[in-house]
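Box S1 | Example of a co-folding query
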Amino acid sequence: MKRKHYDYLLVGAGLFNAVFAAVARQAGKSCFCVEKRAHSGGNIYCEEREGIQVHKYGAHIFHTSNKEVWDFVNSYAEFNRFTNSPVALYKGEVYNLPFNMNTFAKLWNITRPEEAERIIAEQRKAVAGEPSNLEEQAISLVGEDIYRKLIKGYTEKQWGRDCRDLPPFIIRRLPVRFTYDNNYFNDRYQGIPCGGYNVLTEALFADTEILLSTEYLQNRAEFDGMADRVIYTGPLDQFFAFRLGKLDYRSLRFETELLDMPNYQGNAVVNYTEREVPWTRIIEHKFFDFGTQPKTVITREYPSEMKEGMEPYYPVNDEKNQKLCDAYRALAEKEEKVVFGGRLGEYKYYDMDKVVESAFRLLRKEGLMQ
Ligand code: FAD
Ligand code: UDP
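Box S1 (continued) | Returned holo structure for flavin-adenine dinucleotide
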């Protein structure tokens, strides 16, 4: 165990703490990081296979409308021009995502936006008033047909519960457009670091000592003694030994295969939207970086309940969990030395750009950034 004293102890070597470490260091502060996994980078970590950057914890595409965030990440890594345009497979039929004129044209054999709008307006009548759950929200956005073919099965697999028991906001993440535009995101900036995400996280963590394969909570007092402040990015409830109960998380299981062929599915992301297929999506990693290698690596993503020994990937932001989370946040506020950040520490369904924004907010609060 190190005995040196630091300004900050960072728990978790994911993107949140990577950003924190880079800016804190520039402000003249010292950081020491503890990470329970055998590598840094958290969920954006990539592993190289056959010259292909494999997104070990699922497809990651950086997108943002925040210029400050975009300029910041670009000052640490060069980004490629990848634009996410997944396709959905439903019982052998292929549809473009997000829901746009290409989807509507194929589904209803129409060509013009007003035809699509008319059909959706008709189907939307099934929902009266403000949508109160994901099913109502989906039908009100895109109508019954799309809900049945492209949303219901996928969502119920992903979240392990009925669409009527899920909050409407989850589906509002997806754009709905009456133009022929398959870009999955509306954001102004989008791309993936050339050479994979490790290029970014390693540059952010440069000069920060990271102790890998080490669980902070098992040696908390000792680690806390090493620094003036602690930035904790692990699960919020776990920090408090689940004393108010467990927050729900969804987990995932990844099944990765190396195939002796140059092109398996012709796209980086293919969603399987029918309930009967157990995985939600297959990603073909080489296409995140326009790879031309002779072989290919694919990963099937299986949603799963959170079981002992599995990673918590998605906070479940329904009402019950939100209440419990608020109670934990009240406890967190009382911690004098420890600050909570990131997707797990804040229990928020953050994308990467939101994680960077949140790290900036904390850095400003700490007086380390203008
Ligand atoms: P994490 O990356 O989870 O890092 C936290 C780290 O803390 C982990 O390495 C963990 O091992 C460590 N840790 C936890 N507890 C302890 C402990 N007690 N002791 C020591 N170490 C500990 N965002 C996008 O913008 N675009 C996408 O396309 C996208 N796709 C995604 C796909 C999937 C399948 C998932 C799950 C997420 C996706 N995201 C995407 C979100 C993105 O992964 C997160 O926003 C981001 O990685 C969160 O960074 P973080 O630092 O908060 O957390
Ligand atoms: N979704 C869907 N069908 C799809 C893709 C997404 O119904 O083909 C729904 C699903 O409920 C999912 C939500 O839209 O949880 C958000 O999708 P996104 O791709 O943003 O999820 P993430 O990348 O965070 O897993």
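The mean pLDDT is 96. Residues 133 and 165 are 6 Å apart (CA to CA).
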